[in-house]
# Entry
Amino acid sequence: MTILYLCGLNFYIRFTKRRKVIYLLFFNLFTLLALLTHEYAITLPVTAFLYETFLIQKMKIKKIFQYQIPFFIMIFILFFLKVIIFQTSLTVTSFSFEQFLISIVKSLVYLTIPVPQIIDNLPRIFVILLFSIITISYLRLIKDKIAFWLVIWLVITVSLFSSTSVPQARYFYLSAVPATLLISYILNINLGDLMVWPKYCFVILILFFGIFFLKKQESNWMLSSQIIRNTVFSIKETSNKVDMLFLNLPDSINGPPWNIYVFRGGLESPLRSNGIPIGKITYGRTSSLNGIIRDDIFYSKENVYEFLKIGKEIYVYDDRILSIRRINNENDINYQCKNCR
# Structure
């Protein structure tokens, strides 16, 4: 989505310089492709409109809106299909103003000082202090049209995913573009050619922390994939198309704030895609919540035994083997529930 988004913005910038219809057509094409990839591309026409308004200022606002008509038509059609026809929710979680503010504060700090290994370990008061400093610094850029446009672009993208979901690393791909451009622009106008080495050292430091962070995330995603493969293989070997109960499935590998999800969406899709016949699937837990396991219904040992007596296949996740174990009798229940997370 980010690549398509940037291609569309590039064509609109070209359009503002030459006013050729072909550039506008390509802008609308890439806007459509970006929207089909992810709804967060809805900010693209807004970003283009702000670019025209702040940096070009050669066209009346009414005329700019006329160029955006194809976009509004696309938005109406796509959201009509998604919400009315397919009845898909536009948000991952229910809106919480408190969570919205927390997400904006953390996201702007992460994007301006992209060193999550340090930020995650700071006391909350220091994160708020950093956010205050960043906010004041951005407000001082109002008179600089380029910087102010980048600030608004950054805030719009951050506000959008903060209002619809909790922050996740993949949501930062788009917001990282205006953030990176803004930091580079600020360094350039303040240091110029007088202090080249500090700029290079800053960039190298950010790249180092970024690569280290991404490698760790990559390792966790590989572990997540391995757990899913192991689990599907275990069920494939034992399942007889009956109702199943899964206990203590991990929601993510590492917990917040950089969740690497495992069974957030359940097991139905992986099982069906591997051609495994399944009946009704129930999820539960026999241990307390720890930020790792799914927030499913709590079942006591007695509840689990009742499920076993009525013929359900029962599986419990075992972190030691990165997979699930089949519960066959009461002894298995006592042993597995004793050693679960």
